[in-house]
Amino acid sequence: SDGLEATVVVKNPCNFPIEFYSLDFDEQHLEEKKILRMAVGSEYQKRFFMPPRAVGGTLPPEVLEDHEAQKRRKSQQAEAKAGAEAEAEAKAMGKAMGKAAPASRTVTFYPESMVKVTRNPVSRAVLRHLGTDPSSQQRRGIVVIVHGAPRAGKTEIAAGLCQYYDAASVSIDTVVKEAMAND
């Protein structure tokens, strides 16, 4: 089609900055979407929680560091594969010429793969935002209250939060009934 042109006027009635963008044309958004898809994996299509970020901010450092580590691993694996293919080709060429190939072997060391990570980078970013140290025995926590109109999906949202954070769920009705029963 010939397209359509329109003028858009944006006014900010607030005393704090706002940010708006078009997802179809925002290169940063498209790159961050790829990074998140790699970081979260199969959970990407489902809802997941991330710490808030400032206007114009980037993804949490945990997610960016994990992405860089994955890129390094992939490039090291590609280099190792190329080296093995070149070695095999040289060996085959040496056999064709009647020469024995020198006995050499490339060993690639991946330090990142030896580190056991118990949570994905998004979870680590949320824990950092909440001020929770996963290695300490004494953890601080938060209380989330899900409130809303009847049949708005509060129970489903609370169950999802509990499952995601491996947390306990407490119903106000249950607490009030137990309090009344125990005076």
From TrEMBL:
Positions of the Hydin adenylate kinase-like domain: 144-182
Any matching Pfam family: Hydin_ADK
Residue stretches of biased makeup (Basic and acidic residues): 82-92
GO biological process: axonemal central apparatus assembly; cilium movement
SUPFAM superfamilies: P-loop containing nucleoside triphosphate hydrolases
One annotated Gene Ontology cellular component of this protein: axoneme
Region (Disordered): 67-93
InterPro entries with a match to the protein in the record: Hydin-like (IPR033305), Hydin_ADK (IPR033768), P-loop_NTPase (IPR027417)
Gene3D superfamilies documented for this protein: P-loop containing nucleotide triphosphate hydrolases
Entry protein name: HYDIN protein
